[in-house]
Each structure stands twice: as structure tokens, then as C-alpha cells.
Amino acid sequence: MVRVLQNKTILLGVTGSIAAYKAAGLASQLTQAGAAVDVVMTRAATQFIGPLTFEALTRRHVVTDVMALLPDSQIWHVAMAKRADIFVIAPATAHTIAKLAHGLADDAVSATALDASRRAPLVIAPAMETGMWEHAATQENIAKLVARGAVIVPPGEGHLASGASGTGRLANADDLIDTIRAVLGRGGDLARRVIVVTAGGTQEPIDPVRVLANHSSGKMGWALAQAARDRGARVILIAGTTSLRVPRGVELMAASSAREMREAVLRAIVDADALVMAAAVADFRPAQTAEQKIKKGNTETLTLELVKNPDILADVARHSSRPAVVIGFAAETQELLVNARAKLESKNLDLIVANPVPSAFGSDIDRATLIERGGAATELPPLTKEDLSEKILDFIAARLKT
Ligand code: PMT
Q: How far is ligand 1, taken at its centre, from the CA of residue 143, in Å?
């Protein structure tokens, strides 16, 4: 479950593109994440995928007829438009985009949009052949809709229905859901707040091809960044090594080594309300980085001399721009709580998230204990990193309120 999608009604408009079948996956994922999904389709869309598919996935009636009435004679698409928190059109054809730009309303999707978009934000995910997408008419229509406040999820590049390759593929479901979350989160309890999150593991170069690294996947920091964005915050994500996609609406600063991460953190915390250090930062780095690849030669052993890296959180504690709330993580193989408390004190943190190794690294579920300055410790049940992020952000939101 994704908190920002709970109790939200998402109106999903599906228009006549070969990508219409992908809207079924989107409807299913949104429903599973806790949203109520009302689907409205054009006649052309029903030639690519049947309404029954959407009804089965969402367990809600699907509207395909602009004239359809509810049992009490209300106009169905008007009733849908009224209860929507957001209207997402995916895929949106060039024809539908042109209709929306010009206020035409001769099918169920365009008629619903004309009514819904006055109240609910409009997200449009175009899908079409490259020539249609790049045509001046389509681009002018898109610009018009953006000027009216619509959010466009641009099409991606790749194989198209014609067999050609180019720009025009419907954005992938993860990108669409991320956009929906970001739009729904505007005005949340962290609106106008700036939150800096570090994620992933740092890498310390030994030579041009080798590094000292760790097992952090970046999942924890990513979940925090997305959840903070979902609550309306401006999020600066400082990431070490990870292969994860940058979340929509989140500002990324790449920082590979501990020293780069320190520089990035000290720059980002100016004006920040909170800092959450979920990154696994190397405590040591090689004293020297070889300029050329180290050859194994005939030696059986190789000794690396390591020197201490700066402690980023300790530097933040001394910094004049220390944010109002600073949170660290402690990943430990033994004496978890004792070591976590020591770090809470030495790094002058407001909260430390103590999580045991190896289960914390790379997993989707974390077993964490939250320890506040002053002593209170809360042992949490095993939680997804998304749910754990919400608990951490609840702490930040409460602190910033006071
Ligand atoms: O990325 P995932 O696979 O999802 O895994 C998540 C995680 C296990 C990396 C995360 O939950 C976590 O525990 N991160 C901190 C890991 C760690 O390095 O802990 P530490 O006990 O070594 O450091 C304590 C705190 O000081 C951390 O907030 C760390 O970011 C910070 N630190 C550490 C070293 C350093 N030189 N400067 C720092 O500021």
C-alpha cells in the first residue's frame, strides 16, 4: 500500500492506441496500491481492449458512452468527474490531446476531462508514432495544456506499432505511478519543506577499475525520497551507487565517494528543514588511488593502507546550517541498540534508525528500532521500506510543527 494513494479516486481515461492494453497493468497496480480506479474509455480504445478487463481489475463499472446514466438518472461521466482526485489519461492519442486542447467533448474521455480538469489535476501520458508526436500541431496542443496546468508524462523511445523505432511509446507504469503520487502529494503535510535524503553506498577508488564498496542497494533512501515527495516536500536526493531510477519530482545530486557526499550534503542543507542520512558511507578510503590499474604480478598478497573518511553527520552537527531535524541510521552486526545510542549522541542526532545487518541491506522489509534523543525507543514490527519511511517522516512532520 502507498499512503498517498489510500482513499484516493483515480479517474483513468483510456484512448484508442495500441498501448491501451498497458493501461490494464496500470489500473491493476493502482488498485493494489490502495486507490479506487474509475476507468473511462473512448470507443476506439474498446477496439484494443475490452471494458470487462478493467471492470475485473478495478471491481468498478467502466464508462464507454458519453450518454450513460446512473440508475438514479445522473450523467455517469459527470458523476465520475465530480468524485475524482486526479484524472490520468494513459494512453492519450494525438486526436484526444487535440480535443482536450480545444475543449471538444464528443466522447466519454474528452467530455469527462472537460468537467474533471476544473477540479482535479490532469495528467496526460501521450502514445503515438514519432511523426505525430513531433508535429507542430501536437506540440502546440501539448504546450496549451501545460499552460493550463496539465502534467505531461513524456513518451519514451523504442519500438513503435508501425515497426519503426523512435519517440512515442507510452511511459512505463512505474513512471506513471510516480507522477500520480507526486501530483497527489502536492499540498501534503510537508509542503514547502526541504528534505535532504542520502541513499546507497559510497565507492572509494583503489585504482581506475577497482573500488571499496558495500552492499547498500539504495532502496531505503529511495523509499524515503518518494514518500517525502508524496507529502509535498521539495526533496534533494544525494545518491551513492545504485541502479534505481530517479523518482519523478525529486532533485538528484550524484556523489560517489564519502568526500563527494560530504560536499553535496553541506551544499544541500543550506535552507533544508531536515536531513536523513540513509546512505552507507565508507568510514575509510585507500590512502592513495593508483593512477594505473594495479597488476597482480608475482606477489601473493597486497596491502592497502586506509585512511579515515570525514564523518558527514558529525560535520553537519557543527555546521551553522544544521537543519532543524537530523536523522541518522545505524546498521550493526552486534549490540545494535547500544551502538545506535552511541551514534545518536556522538553525531548529535534527533533520531536514529537502528537496523540489523545483514537483513537491512538490499531487502524490501526492514526490522528497525527508532531511538529519539532523550531516550525513547520504539521497536517497530517488520515493515516495508515504504512504511518505515512514513514513520520517519511522521517524526519529521511532528518535529517541524513544534
Ligand atoms: O540501501 P539499502 O539496501 O536499502 O540498505 C539500507 C541501509 C542498510 C544502507 C540503511 O538502512 C542504513 O542502515 N544506512 C546506514 C548504514 C551505515 O553506514 O551506518 P553506520 O552505522 O556506518 O553510520 C551511522 C550514520 O552515520 C549513518 O546515517 C551514516 O549515513 C552516517 N555516516 C557514516 C559514515 C560517515 N563517514 N559519515 C556519516 O555521516
A: 43
